[in-house]
Design brief:
Helix content: 40-55%
CATH architecture of the largest domain: Alpha-Beta Barrel
Radius of gyration: 22 Å
Distance between the termini: 11 Å
Order of helices and strands: HHHHHHHEEHHEEEEHEEE
CATH class of the largest domain: Alpha Beta
Largest sheet: 9 strands, antiparallel
Strand content: 15-25%
Number of domains: 2
CATH topology of the largest domain: Multidrug-efflux Transporter 1 Regulator Bmrr, Chain A
Structural class: alpha+beta
Length: 288
């Protein structure tokens, strides 16, 4: 079974369970990756968070039910995963611009969001430079951000830029440079979804190091893994955001690989990150 088939089977599971409980861990299991990776990947490919896609599909179904049946609004709210008619009304209005009661009237304009399916599209964009490397475990030392993670808000991604800004001002980066193993140069940004405790997200700003842990810092062991390491050239953050989207939507579907349960890594060497000539690297954990 290839990667694209797995993604579409995961979406089929979502579609079959719109009027019931959707287990995001089961969605990710079908896609053969972690819940954290699947939600991140879906956002890149579809251009919308998974939770928002589910909400749109449910409200599309609810609109059909309202116009084609005598179902009570309270029954529809429970059917589509809302604890109260008030919460259902709010979600319905945010999508359609009218209340569920108004949706039953003839001539009312409603919105319909169709099911997504993934396919490979050949694009004529610039090449991507990458290499495949098998790396043994290595230790990083740095500062750690621990944030809540929810499909609705994806708080971790909002907190990471603030985390970088904070430590750029407090002298953390020069301290990490002093700890750096010269065989693995650069400052690392390491994203970790905790797959044992759903709802946790960790991010390290760190350096590969064998030195003692300074006060206020922590260590983490990067596991042995196969990595696809992509060159990113251009001013940050736009260049790296564009590259990450292209990796997910263009490279991964036809590569013969899928996400492995290991951290996502960004490697930043010394240089002017605002320059169009700045070069850094994105490490994607992969397996056949």
């Amino acid at each position: 079974m290839d990667w694209l088939t797995q993604l579409n089977e995961a979406l089929h599971y979502v579609e079959e369970n719109l009027d019931g409980d959707i287990d995001l861990n089961q969605v990710a299991k079908i896609a053969c990756c972690s819940s954290f990776h699947f939600q991140r990947m879906f956002s890149y490919i579809a251009g919308v968070p998974l939770c928002e896609y589910i909400r749109r599909r449910r409200m599309t179904r609810a609109a059909f039910d309202l116009q084609n049946s005598d179902a009570k609004i309270i029954d529809l709210s429970l059917r589509y995963g809302y604890d109260s008619p008030t919460a259902f009304n709010r979600a319905f209005h945010s999508i359609h611009g009218v209340t569920p009661s108004e949706a039953r009237k003839r001539g009312v304009t409603l919105k319909a969001y169709q099911p997504i399916s993934f396919k490979i599209t050949i694009r004529g964009e610039a090449e991507m430079n990458y290499r495949i490397e098998q790396k043994e475990p290595f230790r990083i030392v740095g500062v750690k951000l621990q944030a809540n993670w929810s499909p609705e808000k994806q708080e971790g991604f909002e907190e990471v830029p603030k985390f970088w800004a904070k430590h750029a001002q407090t002298g953390t980066i020069p301290r990490l440079c002093q700890l750096m193993d010269p065989k693995t140069p650069g400052i690392f940004g390491v994203s970790i979804g905790d797959w044992q405790r759903v709802g946790q997200f960790f991010y390290y700003i760190a350096a590969a190091s064998d030195q003692p842990i300074p006060e206020g810092m922590e260590e983490y062991q990067i596991p042995a893994c196969t990595w696809a390491i992509f060159e990113c050239k251009g001013a940050l953050p736009a260049a790296i955001q564009t590259l990450q989207q292209r990796i997910t939507t263009e490279w991964l579907p036809g590569s013969g690989y899928r996400y492995a349960n290991a951290p996502d890594i960004e490697q930043y060497p010394e240089g002017d990150q605002r320059s169009d000539d700045y070069v850094c690297w994105v490490w994607l954990p992969i397996q056949k």
